[in-house]
Design brief:
The protein is α+β, with helices and mostly antiparallel strands and 158 residues long. Helix content is 28%, strand content 26%. It is built from five helices and five strands; from the N terminus they run E-H-E-E-H-H-E-H-E-H. Strand 4 (87-97), helix 4 (128-137) and strand 5 (140-147) form a beta-alpha-beta unit. The longest helix is centred in the middle third of the chain and has 12 residues, at 60-71.
Length: 158
């Protein structure tokens, strides 16, 4: 099964625009969403958001650790910002199963000495430092998983 997955850390606000968040954080985001804007890719956003993202074939653990490493230099600013009653934080994981653009894990029979060369799309864990980061920032963990298999494949596997 091919899996495409990515992670992002986001700050949300119903009143504070992403540009203001970026100014307070002194860090530009990778992505922004504007409250009420129209986009072909997204439903109308219910809030402003400032996001940094990691889209790679790495495991979810590695993606999240990379995001945290990016935020560490501005951690005091993030903590100060989420103390604002209108700002919240979230670590997000998005996974698409049976995605034709996804990656495979090592095929069965691959020697364990060779498995490290393959992506690890299945299974992940949160280390103590990651959990501490989520607590420090007050971030929720939001996981979205989608099955892109067709209905015949789904029926055959259930």
């Amino acid at each position: 099964m091919k899996i495409r997955q990515y992670s992002y850390f986001a700050l949300y606000s119903g009143t504070m625009p992403a540009a203001e968040m970026a100014g307070r954080l002194q860090m530009d985001p990778d992505e922004v969403m504007v409250l009420g804007s129209k986009s072909a890719r997204h439903r109308i956003p219910r809030s402003h958001s400032w996001r940094i993202a990691r889209r790679s074939s790495e495991s979810i653990d590695e993606q999240i650790e990379h995001l945290i490493d990016r935020v560490k230099p501005i951690l005091p600013q993030v903590i100060s910002l989420v103390a604002h009653p209108e700002v919240s934080a979230s670590m997000n994981v998005v996974r698409y199963y049976h995605d034709p653009d996804g990656v495979h894990e090592a095929p069965g029979g691959t020697p364990s000495s060779e498995c490290h060369r393959w992506p690890h799309p299945l299974g992940w864990h949160l280390s103590s430092p990651v959990l501490e980061f989520l607590l420090e920032t007050g971030a929720e963990l939001d996981i979205d998983e989608y099955d892109w298999s067709d209905s015949e494949t789904t029926a055959a596997t259930t």
